[in-house]
Write a structure and sequence with these properties.
By secondary structure, this protein is α/β, with parallel strands linked by helices. It contains five helices and five strands; from the N terminus they run H-E-H-E-H-E-H-E-E-H. It has a single domain, classed as 3-Layer(aba) Sandwich (Rossmann fold). Strand 3, helix 4 and strand 4 form a beta-alpha-beta unit. Helix 1 crosses helix 2 and helix 3 packs parallel to helix 4. The longest helix has 17 residues. The chain starts with a helix and ends with a helix.
Length: 144
Amino acid sequence: MTSRRRTAALLFICIFLTSSCKRSTKRRIAVVPKGQSHIFWQSIHAGAVKAGNELGVEILWNGPPLENDFSRQIGIVEDFINQGVDGIVLAPSNGESMVPVVERAAHEHIPVTIFDSGIKTDKYVSYVSTDNYRGGVIAAERMG
């Protein structure tokens, strides 16, 4: 699945899960990558914006400059929770340090979709990632 399709699927899941809320305003989905400098995250950003435009959703994009800045990522997610966004799509930099903030979002009734890397809690609504083993099998078959 391409990054853009994966992002569109993540946004659809968040929108679907928040559709029971009655609002007259545009839904706001926060997308928080591990970092912003790598081309992978830039493609995720482009896919999120495209999917948001197609689905009529406002995408709020923010992430730390570097992938190892756990405390900055926590602060970003906390800011989005405080803003009362309709959903959060998160690629956790660290599966342990992000647990309290994801559990806080769940407590605040903000659905969280985890992508790219796992997290050590079950307080999210969905998890999307690449099957690296299957990818290796496909690569080996094509090389063979």
